[in-house]
Amino acid sequence: MNLENIAKHFDIQGEVKEIKPLGNGLINDTYKITTDGPQAYVLQRVNNAIFQDVELLQNNIVAVTRHIRRKLEADNECDIDRKVLRFVTLKGEDRTWFEEDGKYWRISVFIPDAYTYETVDPKYSRFAGEAFGRFEAMLSDLEETLGETIPDFHNMELRARQLREAVASDRAGRMADPEVKAILEELLPFEEEMCKAERLHREGVLPKRICHCDTKVNNMLFDADGKVLCVIDLDTVMPSFVFSDFGDFLRTAANTVAEDDPAVDRIDFRMDIFEAFAQGYIKSANVFLTDVERDNLPYAACLFPYMQCVRFFADYINGDTYYKIKYPEHNLVRTRNQLALFKAARAKMPEMRRIIENLASL
Ligand code: GN1
Ligand code: MG
Fold first, then answer.
1. Looking at residue 98, which CATH number applies to its domain?
2. pLDDT tens digits for range 261-303
3. What percent of the chain has pLDDT over 90?
4. Fewest C-beta atoms under 10 Å: which of 2, 99, 245, 354?
5. At which of 83, 109, 135 does a domain end?
6. Are residues 161 and 255 both part of a single domain?
7. CB neighbours (10 Å) of residue 248?
8. What does the pLDDT look like over 197-247, one tens digit per residue?
9. Substitution candidate for ligand 1 out of 61, 214, 234, 342 with most atoms within 8 A of CB
10. Distance between CA atoms of 28 and 219, rounded to whole angstroms?
């Protein structure tokens, strides 16, 4: 696969000097392109086994980035090119993706002097909460209707069903392991409680809004002073419950260890990170947040470790077909980790509720 030949189809400035791997996403392949011109670029192969409609996905992303850019311009923001991603079109076309031999590619302009982190302190957590709340607020009046790039992506009922299907077909023969059975027994009793969002939606009291849906800590760019520049990794931007962005950020940020750390006994759910993130989030999301959404933020903080646990676990039982793994038990280690985090978070729900009530009354 010649990456330079792929890059040649896009309208980039300057000659390509070097193309090197970038970042550590679990789904797409990402590279940095250095040129002899003023700009560097990010080249990505979109994993179309997972994102099956790349055209819909890129249409979503173009609509979202265009809308945010217009808002920033209207607000007379400075340095806009570092605050929203820009996707490069193909030479002579206005399409932002290229297909060859069943592989899909896209290029965006690299944002210089930006940093990503795998962990945050409370101060950065508050900035992050504000940024994701602002992201949702800015998109609340988007004219275009966005498609779901992965249908029912954060639908807990579907994820629970997929786990049961994985268990029933036991494709990799892993159900024979007593530990696997024990994890399943631990997870099942919480299923109904965790499917609350879908029920509220059916009752008509929980709306879908445009959310980011992959608010891991490392999907946000910070400048050298710790201020949030922008939100990246926009493949999963789609209609969802606000719980997605609130819960998934805390899943990574409030965990005392990384999501694949085997040291389960060191796992805790950090309330200082929760409180700071909630402060920032509620501050900027207050303009649209309903009482039902706000009151259920503690539930969201538990839902996402639970859902991720179910997803890693189903993938392990299926024989590791979805997430990239670095060693054979990687998905099982991730499962144990997320289960411990879920339990830690759930034990802290009363404290979370107090914090949210306090913030609501300010
Ligand atoms: C995947 O690609 P990445 O690493 O940002 C996944 C998320 C999971 C996450 C777990 C499309 O995100 O939903 O939360 O791994 N993305 C998709 O680390 O499934
Ligand atoms: Mg990512």
1. 3.30.200.20
2. 999 999 999 999 999 999 999 999 999 999 999 999 999 999 9
3. 94
4. 2
5. 109
6. yes
7. 28
8. 999 999 999 999 999 999 988 899 999 988 899 999 999 999 999 999 999
9. 214
10. 13
C-alpha Rg value of the chain to the nearest Å: 20
Q: How far is CA 40 from the centre of its chain?
A: 24
Taking residues 159-170, what's their average pLDDT? 98
Q: Does residue 198 fall inside a structural domain?
A: yes
CA of residue 35 relative to chain centroid, distance: 29
pLDDT above 80 (res 1): no
Which residue is closest in CA terms to ligand 1's atom 1? Answer: 26
Within a domain: residue 103? Answer: yes
Total domains in the fold of the chain: 2
Q: Using alpha carbons only, what angle is made at residue 142 by residues 138 and 148, rounded to the nearest 5 degrees?
A: 105
For residue 48, the model assigns a pLDDT of 95
Same domain membership, residue 100 and residue 247? no
Q: Name the residue with the closest Cα to ligand 1, atom 15.
A: 26
**pLDDT tens digits, residue range 123-141?**
999 999 999 999 999 999 9
Among 54, 74, 109, the domain-final residue is 109
Q: How does the average pLDDT of the chain come out, rounded?
A: 96
Look at residue 313 and tell me whether its pLDDT is greater than 90. Answer: yes
Q: Is there a domain that residue 114 lies in?
A: no
Q: Residue 5: what residue type?
A: N
What's the domain range around 53?
Answer: 3-109
168/38 same-domain check:
no
CB 266 within 8 A of CB 294: no
Nearest to 177 by CA among 25, 41, 313, 352: 313
Residue 39 and residue 107 in contact, taking contact as beta carbons nearer than 8 Å: no
**Ligand 1 environment, Cβ below 6 A:** 25-27, 50, 214, 216, 233, 236, 259, 308
Q: Tell me the two tokens of residue 6.
A: 């792929």
